[in-house]
Amino acid sequence: MRCDFIEITKCRNLTSVRLKGCDWVTTDFLLSLVRYNRNLRRLVLADCYQISDEAVESMFEFLTTLTDLSLEKTAITDKSLLAMVEHGVTAIEYLDLRYCHGITDYGLMLLRPLRSMKRLWILGCRSITERGLASFRERMEIDLSPRPICAIRPPSLQV
Fold first, then answer.
1. Which of 25, 40, 82, 88 minimizes the number of CB atoms within 10 Å of its CB?
2. Cα separation of the two ends of the chain
3. DSSP notation for the chain
4. pTM of the entire structure?
5. Which of 111, 115, 88, 91 is nearest to 100 (CA)?
């Protein structure tokens, strides 16, 4: 399927869109989609490698009621997470950021105000540490098992 074969402006009542692996999804296409479908609740953009921070930031201007968002394996950074919070996308329950190498502990910190989150996928995010995840562990499900923040050594006696 190619972008120029889809007349997205005719699809005005979508609530769920799955575009996994669609390398033809561009910023212009994404913005057309969200501009005409402000009732989207679920959006999957996994493996859409042309998706950038700028596209996601603009998308959040139109979609403030998203509950389920997958940005797995996209080139987004912490800037996208900041835009999510700044634009009031507070209904997010499920957020998939797997293999988003531009996401850091700082970006996770920005998500703290989002109390509706139930599940966070961050497997493969190289810049996320247990310190960044610690405040989320008690209130939501995370796809990584807890890891020690520092090595714990058994007490020893010296004689």
1. 88
2. 74
3. --GGG--GGG----SEEE-TT-TT--HHHHHHHHHH-TT--EEE-TT-TT--HHHHHHHHHH----SEEE-TT---BHHHHHHHHHTT-----EEE-TT-TB-BHHHHHHTTT-TT--EEE-TT-TB--HHHHHHHHTTSEESS----SS---------
4. 0.85
5. 111
130: which 2 tokens?
A: 């247990």
Largest CA distance in the chain: 81
In 3D, which of 83, 91, 130 has the Cα closest to residue 107?
A: 83
In degrees, rounded to 5, the angle at the alpha carbon of residue 138 between the alpha carbons of residues 133 and 140 is 80
pLDDT at residue 32 in the model? 87
User: Is 76 a residue whose pLDDT tops 70?
Assistant: yes
Mean pLDDT (whole number) for 125-136: 92
- CA dihedral sign, ordered 63, 68, 74, 79: positive
Residue 31 sits at φ, ψ, to 5 deg, of -65, -35
CA dist 132 and 105 (Å) reads 5
